[in-house]
Amino acid sequence: MPIINLAGCKVTPEKSLPAPEKILSGHPVQETENLYTDAKEKVFVGYWSSDIGKWSIDCTGDEEYCHILYGKVCLTDDADGKKVTFVEGDQFIIPEGFKGTWETIEKCKKLYFITNVG
Description:
Pfam families: Cupin_3. InterPro entries: RmlC-like_jellyroll, RmlC_Cupin_sf, UGlyAH_Cupin_dom. By secondary structure, this protein is an all-beta fold. It has one domain: Jelly Rolls (Sandwich). The chain is built from no helices and nine strands. Strands 1, 2, 3, 4, 5, 6, 7, 8 and 9 form a nine-stranded antiparallel sheet that branches. It is globular. About 10% of the residues are buried.
C-alpha cells in the first residue's frame, strides 16, 4: 500500500451545526475538511473549525486526537465536572466513551485524527 500524501488534498469544507438538541449556547457553525477516510471507514483525518458556542458530545465508539491550530476551547467531563481549556498549539486526545461538553470560547480550528474503535 502506498504512502498517502495529504499535502495535495483539496476539499470543499462542509458546513454544519451540532444537532439542535445538543446545542447549549451560541450558534456554533462548523466546517469540516475531511482529507482522508480509510477504506473501512474507521480512520478520518482533516481539519475542523467552529464558531463560538457550546454543545454536548458523546464519543461512544471513537477516539480523537486534536491539535488546536488557533482559538480557544474548553471541554467539560460529565463524569466528574472537570474542565480543561486548550489554546493554539495544544494537543490532546478525547478518549472513547467520553461524554461531556465542547465549548468554543474563541473561533477555533483543529487538525483531527479520529479512530473508530467501536
